[in-house]
């Protein structure tokens, strides 16, 4: 048993999971399959042994992206959640963790497909005018249907039409 418990889930909250112990091999994968599956430039992943992993709400849908790999996602909201490479562990997407700041990627893989300008991303100019003003943030919060970054007893907490 480990003291470290990490929880996470999809945006709508239909699928929630728990991982016990330190996540292994936190990395960014730049392969083309991960790009597509994430709808992003890379997929941030880290592994947990199957016996230290469990779903705490719902079931993911799976897409078999190749012979030995299937990718789990929420079929209600589409959030990419899992990578199952038919081994002794399952990988979770690091952005789906309730505390994504807590796991720092240590490696990257499949650099051949890495965006050529990836290293420039952090130097993009900040368009402060497009930041959300506090009053707008309140409006968004009032209609927010994203599951909070912690487990809940009941979800959705109210039915939305
Ligand atoms: Zn969902
Ligand atoms: Zn990949």
From TrEMBL:
The keyword Metal-binding appears for this protein: yes
Pfam families referenced in this protein's UniProt entry, alphabetically: GFA
Region of interest (Disordered), ranges: 126-161
GO function terms (MF aspect): carbon-sulfur lyase activity; metal ion binding
Domain CENP-V/GFA: 6-116
Entry keyword DNA damage: no
UniProt cross-references to InterPro entries, sorted A to Z: CENP-V/GFA, Mss4-like_sf
Keyword terms: Lyase, Metal-binding, Zinc
Protein family (similarity comment): Belongs to the Gfa family.
Name recorded for this polypeptide: Uncharacterized conserved protein
Natural source organism: Xaviernesmea oryzae
Taxonomic path: Bacteria, Pseudomonadati, Pseudomonadota, Alphaproteobacteria, Hyphomicrobiales
